From TrEMBL:
Pfam families: MiaE (PF06175). GO terms for biological process: tRNA modification. GO terms for molecular function: tRNA 2-(methylsulfanyl)-N(6)-isopentenyladenosine(37) hydroxylase activity. It comes from the Bacteria. This is tRNA-(Ms[2]io[6]A)-hydroxylase. PANTHER family: TRNA 2-(METHYLSULFANYL)-N(6)-ISOPENTENYLADENOSINE(37) HYDROXYLASE (PTHR42637:SF1), TRNA-(MS[2]IO[6]A)-HYDROXYLASE (PTHR42637). SUPFAM superfamilies: Ferritin-like (SSF47240). InterPro entries: Ferritin-like (IPR012347), Ferritin-like_SF (IPR009078), tRNA-Hydrxlase_MiaE (IPR010386).
Length: 207
């Protein structure tokens, strides 16, 4: 089983067609928010490195992840520059906050929950790149090729986060993972007020 198949089985639901349709209609917003997501992913990894300085495995994996996310950020900025898309402030999706509001406030539970959420976000990113790629192959082959190139890295990030979460826990994390996956499904399948890379199904096709 390749990592994409693993992720598709891990996630509680596929990306709805309504999100894919909105993404195809709002490619500039997709690129801008994607850039923001890559920058936030790098920031999250760095924050974990500063907070958990005694976890050598976490330090090594998050250092690599942060570098890769910043490279992806630069690549998206390059694509935007080529297309005349301006990188600007954008209100965040409710997605990450909707997951993080469930994080427990004591250790090691706080770290475990944070890492599980990281795994789910990376898995969903990978699944969305794969979901939209076939629709772009004819109309926007350059973007389709770029999204395909991200699948391996995003899949590895998902695996790293999930392993770190299990290693940090005092017991099996399956039940906690299922809890967050159920929360993720509700965020992905429900209506959303605006389109973002990690939004639910937007009520309208513009931001």
């Amino acid at each position: 089983m390749d990592v994409l198949q693993e992720i598709q089985q891990f996630l509680p639901c596929p990306t709805p067609q309504g999100w894919i349709d909105a993404a195809l209609e709002n490619r500039d917003i997709l690129l801008i928010d994607h850039a923001h997501c890559e920058k936030k992913a790098a920031s999250t990894a760095m924050n974990l490195m500063f907070r958990y300085v005694d976890n050598i495995d976490l330090l090594n994996k998050m250092s690599r992840l942060a570098r890769e996310e910043l490279i992806h950020f630069e690549q998206v900025l390059g694509l935007m520059r080529e297309r005349g898309v301006i990188y600007d402030h954008m209100t965040p999706a409710r997605y990450a906050q909707g997951l993080r509001r469930h994080i427990r406030n004591h250790e090691p539970a706080k770290l475990v929950d944070t890492l599980i959420i990281g795994a789910i976000i990376e898995a969903r990113s990978c699944e969305r790149f794969a979901a939209i790629e076939p629709y772009l192959e004819e109309s926007d082959p350059a973007l389709a090729k770029y999204y395909h190139s991200l699948l391996k890295a995003e899949g590895r990030h998902y695996q790293d986060y999930l392993k770190l979460a299990q290693d940090a826990a005092a017991e099996d994390i399956t039940e906690r993972v299922e809890f967050f996956l159920a929360a993720e499904r509700e965020l992905i399948e429900s209506d959303d007020d605006e389109f973002r890379f990690h939004s639910g199904v937007p009520k309208q096709s513009s931001c």
